[in-house]
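hey so u asked for the seq, here:
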Amino acid sequence: MTIEPVDALRRIAFLLERSRASTYRVKAYRQAANTLLAIPEAEVHERVRSGTLKQLDGIGPSTAAVVEEAVAGRVPTKLADLDAEVGGPLVNGGEELRTHLRGDLHSHSDWSDGGSPIQEMVATAMELGHDYLALTDHSPRLTVANGLTAARLTQQLKVVDAVNKAVGPGFRLLKAIEVDILDDGTLDQTVELLDRLEVRVASVHSKLKMDSAAMTRRMVAAVRNPHTNVLGHCTGRLITGDRGKRPQSSFDAVAVFEACAEHDTAVEINSRPERSDPPDDLLTLAIESGCLFALNTDAHAPGQLDFQAYGAERAERLGVPVERIVNTWPLEQLLDWASPTT
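ran it, structure tokens below
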């Protein structure tokens, strides 16, 4: 088996990301891949022969070793070790349900708080077999996550058009947003821009300890907004990871999920291991309430797009009907459902 140097570097980064390695560990491999992409293949081979590979910006001892082994026709040791260590299934269960998923409706790029360019997120989504990916960078009020102003979002929409033109038929990058639910339940973006988007995930990111009655009013108002397609990570909890733990917000889940069912707003099954949101008891309640669902990764790096395995296991185990998971639907059906005019 042989592998191209850039593919080896990207695969290493992917495996590190899906195993939740630190961004610092991953960055060197993606930076090295980008460096090699910018120069002719013949120059890469010549530098390996002459021992000048590490003179290139972004190529250090570890990444140079990967490139040298790949150029020599060998599977790099680093890649082989990672494949053996973390390349297997992330979780047991959910495999059948996952075969029905056509895309992911919650992902972030380096335009907000993601770690990779849009193009790299798209390339990985295509490699995973997705038909579509929603680019849901944050909205303006979430300054800590570099939320997009109206001007920046407008510019991003042009980039999305260019990406779709470049990839051609068979895959679609969706114009989307993770829009903050403000204190009064309104959405943190102009109606004009929300109208231009294809998918809108609405999430609470602030005042997570708000009084239960007020939080319920806030969430129900957002769910009833015709622009809201998906209620993102509804409890806001964190159960593990380097961000620490955070208890779930308090709200009347029956009222919120009934509003979701009434207005065809999907409840997100957030697949990030540190979120696993909603918890099993609330996910069961949402099923019983007749809700639609969106099984998303909330990926902030390309390798995290594989986190759907975690959500699929939970959805299959708890009996979420496949036909009620909106990202199992064909693109045209999805877009028709997500349009605020329908």
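The CA atoms of residues 240 and 274 lie 5 Å apart. The chain has 14 helices and seven strands.
lmk if thats what u needed
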